Every structure is written in structure tokens, then in C-alpha cells.
Amino acid sequence: MDKHQARLILSWISKNLEGNEFPRSHGKGLVGNQSGQWRYRIGDYRLIANIDDETITILILEIGHRRDIYQ
User: Fold this and answer.
1) Helices (H) then strands (E): counts for the chain
2) pTM (two decimals)
3) Which keywords does this Swiss-Prot/TrEMBL entry list (predicted)?
4) 15: left (phi > 0), else alpha (psi -120 to 50), else beta?
5) Residue 26, CA distances (Å) to 4, 23, 71 in order
């Protein structure tokens, strides 16, 4: 990932997830082996995360291009 794309992703996280009481509103729940995790679309990139409801904490597990992220 180049620096420009990394900045866009950080900006998206800052705008859409930081301080958000309902972070699931921007994502989609995963199924199968990744059940319980959430996916966020950021252009051609995907962010995979776990969400702790008690503290409203988002733990980012992985960020990658959509063609590679689910492998």
C-alpha cells in the first residue's frame, strides 16, 4: 500500500469510526470462519475488525486490498 492510500484510510477511520457510538453502521458483519468480525469498505481496500461493545473499542485486525484480504 502506498502512502497516499494509507493516508486516505487513516482519514476514513478518523472521520467514520473515531468517537462513533455505533461503528457497525458503517460496516458489514462477516460470516463463516470470520463470524463475529466486521468489514469496512474503503475504496478498493478492506478493513477487518473486532468490535467490543462494552467499551466501544474497535480492534483493527487487518487492512488489505479486496482481492487479497479474505485469503
Assistant:
1) 1, 4
2) 0.84
3) Toxin-antitoxin system
4) alpha
5) 22, 6, 23
Determine, yes or no, domain membership for 16: yes
pLDDT at 21: 87
Backbone dihedral angles phi then psi of residue 62, each to the nearest 5 degrees? -160, 145
Q: DSSP H helical segments within 1-71, as ranges?
A: 3-16
The cell numbers describing 16, all together, are 467514520
Q: Mind listing the pLDDT tens digit for each residue in 8-62? A: 999 999 999 998 889 999 999 999 988 999 999 999 999 999 999 888 899 999 9
In a domain, 71, yes or no: no
CATH of the domain at 42: 3.30.2310.20
Reference 60, options 46, 68, 49; nearest CA is 49
34-39's contacts with Cβ under 8 Å and 24+ in sequence apart are 34/70, 37/61
